[in-house]
Design a protein that fits this description.
This protein is α/β, with parallel strands linked by helices. The chain has 6 helices and 7 strands, in the order βαβαβαβαβααββ. A hairpin with a 2-residue loop joins strand 6 and strand 7.
Length: about 160
């Protein structure tokens, strides 16, 4: 069982995310007011942070930067961003802010759970990766489907953000 903090200002989304994570055996801590997120993370000591990007007060990009600048072990916690506005260049921008993965709304439940599981399996971020810009050029981005993940009738590979290019 992992400890997962979910930062989301939409009541329906936070309920969906927390219910889904709880159903998969995780201990969740919902945070509706992003101004409370950093302090809650320090107190809760999550294994994973899931944050919306479009938040009032402290947006998700700034929150990720604050977490990455905080003291260890919080700075090493993996972050998954969730956004309704995934556009060209967002992958790099979100990763540079400190996320290891992101999914687009409306979420695919399967992709959401797979991404959470992968981030938890990978564990805390290595200290030397915190000094990098967060963008890994060595392979496909988190959340990307490979041909091994699909059955033949599923068609072309795509992510929650759209077809792979």
């Amino acid at each position: 069982m992992a400890r997962i903090m979910v930062v989301e200002d939409n009541a329906l989304n936070i309920k969906l995310f927390c219910d889904l994570l709880t159903a998969h055996g995780h201990d969740t801590r919902p945070v509706v007011d992003s101004r409370e997120a950093l302090e809650t993370a320090r107190e809760f000591a999550p294994d994973l942070v899931i944050t919306d990007i479009q938040l009032p007060h402290v947006d998700g990009m700034e929150l990720m930067r604050l977490i990455r600048e905080d003291a260890a072990p919080l700075a090493r916690v993996p972050i998954m961003a969730v956004t309704a506005y995934a556009g060209e260049g967002d992958d790099e921008r979100i990763r540079n802010a400190g996320a290891q993965a992101y999914v687009s709304k409306p979420i695919s439940v399967v992709r959401f759970v797979e991404t959470v599981d992968r981030l938890l399996e990978d564990g805390p971020i290595e200290a030397d990766r915190l000094e990098d810009d967060g963008h890994d050029e060595s392979g496909p981005r988190e959340g990307a489907a490979s041909s091994q993940d699909r059955t033949p009738d599923e068609g072309p590979a795509e992510t929650d953000e759209g077809p792979l290019t």
